[in-house]
Amino acid sequence: MTCWLLKTEPDSFSLDDLAARPGGIEPSDGVRNYQARSFLRDATHTGSAGS
């Protein structure tokens, strides 16, 4: 099973901000590193949490 750790700066978007979102979901606003973006695009899918 592949796991991804996604990081943001706490003053930009914190864990409390995510917890306040309906369903604990927040869309991504992009990944600047092209290789990382490709890995995430190919390995993640909507609704794949916990599988």
UniProtKB/TrEMBL annotation:
Pfam families: EVE
Coiled-coil region: none
Residue ranges of every copy of the EVE domain listed in the record: 3-43
SUPFAM superfamilies: PUA domain-like
PANTHER family, sorted: THYMOCYTE NUCLEAR PROTEIN 1
Descriptive protein name: EVE domain-containing protein
Organism: Pseudohaliea rubra DSM 19751
